[in-house]
Amino acid sequence: MIKKKKKNCFSLGQSLVEMIVVVGIVTVSLVALVRAAVVAVRNAQFARHQSQAIDLAREAAEWLRAERKKGFSQFASYADSNYCFNNLDWNNTGSCGDDELVNGIFKREVSLTKESDDLIKVEITVSWQERGKTHSRTIETYLSKS
For residues 63 and 16, what is the distance between their CA atoms, to the nearest angstrom? Predict the structure, then answer.
């Protein structure tokens, strides 16, 4: 005669508890991975915007250097003013409005201050909104007559 083993109800319950624990651990791990991926994407986007802002500021600095080379007297006449350089021209004085953006998100503002008859301080600020905060990058340089 062959004896059949009785299954222990306690053993079945223990397997169920183990399975719930494993599913919980896997779920927590997946949530952590997804959260890490979201943070990585946000950081990459911020880094890309920061790099673009610096490039836009450098572009404006190079344009201003070229303007100075055309004639320092004319260039100096623009000093002691602020400009919105959504386009690289002298037509837009003052701060940039919400509709005066470069590449759809950046405000590029320039301040020219006459330090002396032969020296102009240039401050270029590029700002943008991201995740409810305003971020900005500024380049400061001096352009002289000679």
Answer: 70
pTM of the model: 0.76
Per-residue pLDDT in tens (0 to 9) along the chain, 146 residues: 565 555 555 565 678 888 888 899 999 999 989 998 888 888 899 999 999 999 999 999 999 999 999 999 999 999 999 999 999 999 999 999 999 999 999 999 999 999 999 999 999 999 999 999 999 999 999 999 97
Per the document, the length of the chain is: 146
For the chain, how big is the Rg over CA atoms in Å? 30
Supply 5's token pair.
Answer: 């083993």
Read off the tokens for 13.
């319950």
Tell me the DSSP string of 18-34. HHHHHHHHHHHHHHHHH
